[in-house]
């Protein structure tokens, strides 16, 4: 049995924060959440405290790609030069970096061959220190489509149906569909790929066995088709048109809300590059090249329209959840939450998007996403109050996974380890 003291607790339900509470954990589950001192403690119980900190449920990232996180390298560079074995090792490192950022559950939305199967197996066996992991395995894509090099190309209704059944047989947790082109060379992110019927077939097969289906949707037409196909969730929803414009579609948005579809904006994709270009532009001794000026303008247009789309969906009551996508450095999670706040979500709504709502989106709401009796004991300690300043969501000091402290950054300092930055990997002691 373990006892965790919380000076402040935001439990993920949306209720008012609690102060001076005790979280009693037994066998990896939360047994009680009670006022401090209200229940007699066994003399031999382990007690953990971090005075002044705020306790939250562990964060959930609904959209990662563990095989990447390779800095500024392109998709093609990674695919052409890295073996599956290297991707498994890097993916394990990436999972740990996310854990240090407070992510206790992540969902991988596509990797080559059996890369994420191996990472998930290692995590489940306790071989690596990692968040809990759900995987889609190889994403479904048309021949030559986005992520075709993951090796699950499928065409036509029956081809898609067969590929979906194969993935389900292999044990994926959900189905990921590439409904439009993307960053893969030779694909067009402004145009849809799969038909409504093809995506509906994959979704039907997933639902037949109680699993969910989500779709990569950059192109406006792919958003509309994904809605008609009955998917559970859509990723990105850029409403991107062949002329390069990003235009809100109220008719499609209404259908998304009516159908109760979950939205994963992956808002931070490309944001760090925007920051770097803005810093260079502001420097007195540096000048942006013509290409960099175009990149900055395109990045800002994408960001501004995405913020607008999130704001509109928020006002419509759509469920919006937190996901990072193929970011260059794992552990850089909280910036997406800050951008949610910039889009109009309140601090409490931001927290819910990363905890209880994200848990519901991926089907684990009975186990994760809130700090209350009966739930798995996954929670984090933050330095500060995120309701006063959402940037405090980046100040993760302690991570508790399955009832055990797996990250305590005070121990980093005790053994002389600096804070991780820029993808450095210095393992925190396991306690």
Largest sheet: 8 strands, mixed
Overall mean pLDDT stands at: 95
Counted up, domains total 2
Q: How many DSSP H or I helices?
A: 13
What is the succession of H and E elements? EEEEEEHHEHEHEHEHEHEHHHHHEEEH
Poorly predicted parts: 421-431
Task: Quickly name the level 1 CATH class of the largest domain.
Answer: Alpha Beta
Description:
- By secondary structure, the protein is an alpha/beta fold.
- Helices cover about 35% and strands about 20% of the residues.
- It has 2 domains: about 1-55 and about 365-415, Roll (Urease, subunit C, domain 1); about 60-360, Metal-dependent hydrolases (TIM Barrel).
- The strands form 3 sheets. Strands 1, 2, 3, 4, 5, 13, 14 and 15 form an 8-stranded mixed β-sheet that branches. Strands 9-10-11-12 form a 4-stranded parallel β-sheet.
- The longest helix has 27 residues, at about 290-315.
- The two termini are about 15 Å apart.
- About 50% of the residues are buried.
Task: Give a short summary of the structure.
The protein has 13 helices and 15 strands. The chain has 431 residues and is of the alpha/beta class.
């Amino acid at each position: 049995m373990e006892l965790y003291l919380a000076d402040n607790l935001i439990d993920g339900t949306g209720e008012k924060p609690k102060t001076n509470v005790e979280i009693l954990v037994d066998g990896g589950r939360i047994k009680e959440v009670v006022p401090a001192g209200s229940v007699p403690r066994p003399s031999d119980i382990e007690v953990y405290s971090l005075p002044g900190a705020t306790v939250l449920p562990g964060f959930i990232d609904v959209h990662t790609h563990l095989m990447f996180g390779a800095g500024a390298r392109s998709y093609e560079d990674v695919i052409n030069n890295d073996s599956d074995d290297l991707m498994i090792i890097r993916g394990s490192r990436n999972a740990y970096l996310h854990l240090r950022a407070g992510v206790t559950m992540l969902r991988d939305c596509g990797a080559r061959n059996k890369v994420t199967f191996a990472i998930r197996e290692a995590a489940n066996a306790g071989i690596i220190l990692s968040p809990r992991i759900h995987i889609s395995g190889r994403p479904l894509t048309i021949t030559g489509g986005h992520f075709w090099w993951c090796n699950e190309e499928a065409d036509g209704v029956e081809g898609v149906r067969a590929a979906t059944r194969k993935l389900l047989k292999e044990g994926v947790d959900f189905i990921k569909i590439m409904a439009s082109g993307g960053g893969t060379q030779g694909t067009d992110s402004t145009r849809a790929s799969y038909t409504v019927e093809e995506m509906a077939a994959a979704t039907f097969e997933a639902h037949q066995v109680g699993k969910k289906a989500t779709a990569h949707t950059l192109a406006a037409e792919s958003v509309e088709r994904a809605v008609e196909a009955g998917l559970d969730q859509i990723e990105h929803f850029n409403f991107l048109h062949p002329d390069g414009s990003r235009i809100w579609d109220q008719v499609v948005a209404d259908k998304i809300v009516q159908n109760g579809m979950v939205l994963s904006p992956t808002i931070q994709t490309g944001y760090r590059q925007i920051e770097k270009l803005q810093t260079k532009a502001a420097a007195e001794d540096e000048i942006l090249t013509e290409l960099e000026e175009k990149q900055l303008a395109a990045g800002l247009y994408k960001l501004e329209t995405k913020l607008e789309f999130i704001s509109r969906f928020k006002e419509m009551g759509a469920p919006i959840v937190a996901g990072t996508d193929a970011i260059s450095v794992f552990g850089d999670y909280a910036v997406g939450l800050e951008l949610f706040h910039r889009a109009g979500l309140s601090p409490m709504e931001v927290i819910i998007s990363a905890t209880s709502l994200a848990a519901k989106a991926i089907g684990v709401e009975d186990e994760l996403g809130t700090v209350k009796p009966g739930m798995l004991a996954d929670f984090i300690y933050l330095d500060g109050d995120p309701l006063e300043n959402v940037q405090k969501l980046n100040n993760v000091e302690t991570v508790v996974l399955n009832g055990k402290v797996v990250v305590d950054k005070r121990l980093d300092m005790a053994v002389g380890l600096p804070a991780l930055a820029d993808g450095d990997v210095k393992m925190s002691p396991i306690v």
